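Sat 14:20. Reprocessing the chain from the morning session after the first attempt stalled halfway. Input below, unchanged.
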Amino acid sequence: MPQIGWIIDLTKCTGCHTCEVACKMENNTLPILSPLLLKSAYSAQQVNWRRVLEIESGRYPNTKRSFFTMSCNHCEHPACMASCPVDAISKRSEDGIVLIDQGKCIGCKYCSTACPYDAPQFNETTGLMEKCTFCVHRLDSGLEPACVTSCLGGALQWTFDVDAPGDVPDGFADPRLTDPSVEWRRDTVRG
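Finished this time. Tokens:
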């Protein structure tokens, strides 16, 4: 089966969150309107199919802050699919994209618990699970995913030919768990 995947260059991501905003705009994920609806005083109702993580490391005065973009990794062996009790999650045979059938989903959150990358998100309004679709509606029309076309620094790309995961960033779950379709790169930075 062909397997589509992400290429993420850890040296190019600046943490601008443009990919996150583009994903929200393209897929109309919560919140659609402003202001944010609050579940409690500490958390808002929101669904983030793509998010930018910030990793801090080192000790003063040698501290370091790095960023990487995350979404569903459309894994070769998706834990979310194996955990779904109603078979609402499937992989497309033509490209390996993992999708949730909203007509079958019962919102049990098992997929969210099983996924080591926290990709499936619970939509408080619909009571169903959602996650990155790799913008299949765009791919099927010959376009790239919205997050890829919006990435200002060229840190996010996609491919039909994912190589070995590469040098996995700190905080990323062990790739042996699900064989995520992501290739981590660290291009040489010239100053």
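The chain has one domain: 5-30+60-185.
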